[in-house]
Amino acid sequence: MIMEEIRELATRFERYSAHSHISGLGLDKDLRAKTVGGGLVGQKKAREAAGIIVRLIREGKMAGRGILIAGPPGTGKTAIAVAISKELGRDIPFVQASASEFYSSEMKKTEALYQTMRKAIGVRIRETRRVLEGELVELEYNMVPNPYNPTQKIPESARITLATKKERRTFSVGSRLALQFMYSGISEGDVIMIDRETGRISRLGKANPEKRYDIDIDDVVERPDGNVEKDREFTYVVTLHDLDEARAKRGSLLSLFSSESREIDSEVRQAVDEQVKEWIEQGMAELIPGVLFIDETHLMDIELFAFMNRAMESEMAPIIILASNRGFARIRGTDDTSPHGVPLDLLDRLLIITTEPYSKEEIRLIIETRAAEMGLVIENEALEKLTEIGEKNSLRYAIQLLAPANEIAKVKNSARIDVEDVEKAEQLFADVSRSSAYLKELEGKMLL
Ligand SMILES: Nc1ncnc2c1ncn2[C@@H]1O[C@H](COP(=O)(O)OP(=O)(O)O)[C@@H](O)[C@H]1O
Ligand SMILES: [Mg+2]
Q: What whole-number distance in Å separates Cα of residue 94 and Cα of residue 63?
């Protein structure tokens, strides 16, 4: 694999944003859960357990093991998994999937699971490159007529001078680089970096501008220290799946005429694994096992479980977090039942965290915290009504009603949500049990 490709691949991991109010587990330094912390309320035991898990993951002591978060719907299983990812930080990959996503017509279910597992493993690659770095203090183009269109002029070459705090150096550059300067809009006064080998130019910011504006879109940077020509270390974080896809694409000329498939050959993965191990041995790379969170675990069947169980033993496996709201359930694809519908040999590998139903006070506090986070003002009576809905229907439904209730208030030109706004929102938007009951009733009528 060439570094060029890796630089292209190195983008930030995508993050899950639906539980946007959650910023962490909300623990103090002794790993005790605060009543309200990190956007979470209550559920202290589970949060404290999750705090221990975060430590184990950081210390690399969770390899080959997994976690099961078990509890009734709406008790914060997903919320806690998201909080774990926030605690782990941006550098550790966190991938969320629902077990239903593994079943598609596009690829085998085991392939879908394997790809998802490899998305949850990062590789941090370091590379030292020779660069020229400094403030561009002089840029002069040598323009010639365009050979294809003589009415136009293009730069045939350019002369540039780069300055650091220590020295100034002048270089002449060829047409390819000169064109890059012209089209990237780089001008004198910019601090730039040129890759010696590839000629790639990056603009780092504007150097010590004379005029300071109160508001300025430019990043101001200092004129660099040291020599103009120097070695710089770069790090890129990519996932194993990124590397698999890049390598598979390179081989795809051969398979141009075979049917389009997004499945990845096992030889490709083997080659990627070997390459990564080689990098690690050379001290160029580091493996960052991330976390794969699988919701609705009971939808997985025995084949997927067996595959995952085996894959967890590999040295390149992510930490698996499963969530289940089933007690005893049949394992799909078999006639056996087991706790949470998870096969016993897999259960043996799992640390189990349980979440408990919320008390009325906790429901009220969660809704209140959530409303505050959304910047909403809510009257007491309205909060009481939502708390009731949270108790009677579900917490998720009560939280979901906040946004429409606020819109209803705004239409009345009110900045506060009152109880009528909540009732109106409840009328207009059904919760899942109501909408499914409604359709069931209709289906019954249509059969007649
Ligand atoms: N302890 C909590 N503190 C704050 N918000 C919570 C808490 N538990 C759940 N929520 C929020 O309530 C909603 C439902 O919780 P969720 O995590 O989806 O439950 P589950 O995954 O157990 O079904 C989500 O919007 C979630 O962010
Ligand atoms: Mg959930």
A: 15
Tell me the C-alpha distance between 114 and 244, whole Å: 11
pLDDT digits over 424-439, tens only?
999 999 887 777 777 7
Q: Which is it for strands 291-295 and 94-98: parallel, antiparallel or unpaired?
A: parallel
Domains assigned to the chain? 3-120+290-354 (3.40.50.300), 127-235 (2.40.50.360), 360-438 (1.10.8.60)
Q: Which long-range contacts (CB under 8 A, 24 or more apart) does 374-382 make?
A: 374/21, 374/402, 374/403, 374/406, 376/402, 376/406, 376/417, 377/415, 377/416, 377/417, 378/402, 378/416, 378/417, 379/416, 379/417, 379/418, 379/419, 381/418, 381/419, 382/417, 382/418, 382/419, 382/421, 382/422
Instruction: Kindly tell me if the per-residue pLDDT of 258 is higher than 60.
Output: no
Tell me the whole-structure pTM to 2 decimals.
Answer: 0.76
User: Which of 296, 362, 396 to probe ligand 1 with, by most ligand atoms within 8 A of CB?
Assistant: 396
Angle among Cα 156, 158, 164 to the nearest 5 degrees reads 160
Q: What is the pLDDT of residue 11?
A: 45
Q: Note whether 415 and 403 are within 8 A (CB).
A: no
DSSP strand pairing (319-324 vs 291-295): parallel
Whole-number Å distance, alpha carbon 71 to ligand 2 midpoint, is: 10
Closest ligand, as measured to the CA of 296: 2
pLDDT tens readout for residues 29-82: 999 999 889 989 999 999 999 999 999 988 888 877 899 999 998 899 999 999
Element (H, E) at 348: none
77-to-5, 40, 222, 288 alpha-carbon distances in Å: 38, 12, 47, 24
Per-residue pLDDT tens digits for 183-217? 888 889 999 999 998 888 989 888 876 655 666 56
Query: How far, in Å, CA of 349 to CA of 336, rounded?
Result: 19
Instruction: Report the SS3 class of residue 220.
Output: strand
Rounded Cα–Cα distance for residues 241 and 248 (Å):
10
- With a 6 Å cutoff on the Cβ, whether 79 touches ligand 1 is yes
Pairing of strands 149-163, 168-173: antiparallel
CA distance 335 to 133: 67
CB 370 within 8 A of CB 399: yes
Mean pLDDT of 138-154: 89
Instruction: Point out the ligand nearest to the CA of residue 18.
Output: 1
